[in-house]
Structures are given as structure tokens and as C-alpha cells.
Specification:
alpha+beta; Glutaredoxin; Glutathione S-transferase Yfyf (Class Pi), Chain A, domain 2; four-stranded mixed beta sheet; 8 helices; 50% helix; globular; transferase; transmembrane; glutathione transferase activity
Length: 208
């Protein structure tokens, strides 16, 4: 039995999207953020030492970290390789690359969030440049492409969805038409719409 521990307005939303795309049976446990801190509640922190969402239980296995969960679900349940390029191909190497980029974008976006709340001194210019650096890279890469790796929807798209949705709040959307188109495509994907229904609400990151 698969159980996903889901924190509202978090990167756990992309895991629900993947679970729906894979058409898997799973239990969803939804947690509200702490009203004072906006962080995960104690009940969620009790599920894994890192105390962050998402947390996936698959039988006796317990996993945190979104990209690890994505890869686990694809390795174990995507028997027809619908969302994974063939191994030992350039497409697969690019797939792995964008999985890594998605994780790096979390740090860039966190920098952007923190600059709204404090002074980084001599590092301020470097910190402020990180989200635009990654977004410019993604924007150029998406030119002429449907999905990140090309025409095939892959785990990299599930991984990239949240950091792009989040980071776009710190930028001028008009500067990133390819990313805006890409996010709209994600948010209108049938399995993504099912994820919205399952979680009883859309992902709204405007306050972060």
C-alpha cells in the first residue's frame, strides 16, 4: 500500500500528479501548515527525520525528497517506460540532468524568498541572480520543445513543475513566455487536474 504524506502548498503536489499519471492506488494524508510559522506541523515531522513534505510510504519503505520519490515510483511502477527515456541514450542523460536542475532550483528560489526577509550583505547580488540564472536557462532550453526532454513527458517534468511554479512569483512573467506556456500545459494535464481534485485545492504559491 502506498501512502503519501502531503503538506498543503508544497512540492508534494507534484507527487500527487505523478501518482495520478501512473494511475496507482494510494492513500493521501493531508496536513495543514502551522498558522503561525507556515511550516509543517508536528504530525508531519513525526513521519520522517527531515520533517518535510513529501513523505512516501510504500510498504515498509519510507522515502523523503521529491526527486528520490519520483525516481522510485517510476522505477517500480512505470513498467512501460511512459515517463522515462530509454537508458544509455542522450535523452536519458538529459533526463537525469533536469532532475538535478530541479533540486538546484529549490536553493535558488529559497535565496529569492530570503532576500525578501533579510540583508545578505556582500552576497546580495549573487543571491538575487540565482533564480533568474536558472529561469533563463530553462526558458532557452524550452524553445521549440513540448516537454523538458522533448516530446515525451518524463519524470523530469514532474520534478521541474514545482520550482518553476514557485520561482515565477519572483520574476516578470512576460520575460519567460516558454516557461509560462510550459506551466500552463502542466496545470491543464488531465492527471494534474485530478491531483487538484484529490488534494481539494489548487497549488497557490503566491504568498511565498
Amino acid at each position: 500500500m502506498i501512502t503519501l504524506h502531503y503538506l498543503k502548498q508544497s512540492c508534494a503536489h507534484r507527487i500527487v500528479w505523478l501518482l495520478e499519471a501512473l494511475e496507482l492506488d494510494y492513500e493521501l494524508k493531508i496536513y495543514d501548515r502551522d498558522p503561525q510559522t507556515a511550516l509543517a506541523p508536528a504530525e508531519l515531522k513525526a513521519q520522517h527525520p527531515l520533517g518535510k513534505a513529501p513523505v512516501l510510504q510504500d510498504g515498509d519503505l519510507i522515502l523523503a525528497e521529491g526527486t528520490a520519490i519520483i525516481q522510485h515510483l517510476l522505477d517500480r511502477y512505470d513498467d512501460e517506460n511512459r515517463f522515462t527515456p530509454a537508458h544509455k541514450t542522450d535523452a536519458y542523460s538529459n533526463y537525469v540532468y533536469w532532475l538535478a536542475i530541479s533540486a538546484s532550483m529549490f536553493s535558488a528560489n529559497m535565496f529569492a524568498l530570503l532576500t525578501k526577509r533579510g540583508d545578505f550583505g556582500d552576497f546580495a547580488q549573487y543571491v538575487a541572480a540565482q533564480t533568474p540564472l536558472y529561469f533563463n536557462h530553462v526558458e532557452q532550453h524550452l524553445e521549440g520543445k513540448k516537454w523538458v526532454v522533448g516530446e515525451q513527458l518524463t519524470g523530469a517534468d514532474f520534478a521541474m513543475s514545482f520550482p518553476l511554479q514557485w520561482g515565477l512569483n519572483y520574476l516578470n512573467k512576460a520575460d519567460y513566455p516558454n516557461i509560462v506556456r510550459y506551466i500552463e500545459q502542466i496545470e491543464n494535464h488531465p492527471a494534474y487536474l485530478k491531483a487538484n481534485e484529490k488534494t481539494k485545492g489548487n497549488l497557490d504559491l503566491s504568498r511565498f
